[in-house]
């Protein structure tokens, strides 16, 4: 009887160990975390270069009637901006027509481009998981955004799937052998995109289809807090099962 009890706890112990391994998200491979390149690591000349193209996207967004929130462009490495566009979800009655999708499809339709290795995509807001997926499949080597998803969701109460674009990007290795991560530079001209492009939906009384009540950890980074607490819970579970195995062994 005690022997079966012992085997039962061994099985539970192994299961808990499997559940607590890696980051709990990818069962196939341990994935290093990617974070956007901090602006402090971008040199003055390169920063000025990206600011120039981001400013063009901002100007484009502001020139629309009504003003666009999400706008994007694609720029060749020789400095040629080949397309620019905005979210067309409402105009086309198609919720998948985010700005990034619009410009990728436009570049394909106009120039037949289906591999964007030599191109950088600029967007006023960090790409959502749908657009970041399209960006990965399209082979972009660099993405530059203004306002982060975290800011839109946590600070502006704007409807978003709260997943950083770098999270999905970290798993792009499955697309091809020797795959190289696109560089993601966040926060370029965010002082403008945060304050002049995107609206704050948080104030009481604000009515909009975009308004949500964010579930954010304040004031620390919610992602780190969640992962560390998950890890602690997994370790505790493993420890409890290990203790139970030891106790059951004593009764054999
Ligand atoms: Zn999107």
From TrEMBL:
GO terms for biological process: tRNA wobble adenosine to inosine editing. It comes from the Eukaryota. The keyword RNA-binding does not apply. PROSITE patterns: CYT_DCMP_DEAMINASES_2 (PS51747). Keywords: Signal. The keyword NAD does not apply. CDD domains: nucleoside_deaminase. InterPro entries: CMP_dCMP_dom (IPR002125), Cytidine_deaminase-like (IPR016193). Residues 45-160 form the CMP/dCMP-type deaminase domain. This is CMP/dCMP-type deaminase domain-containing protein.
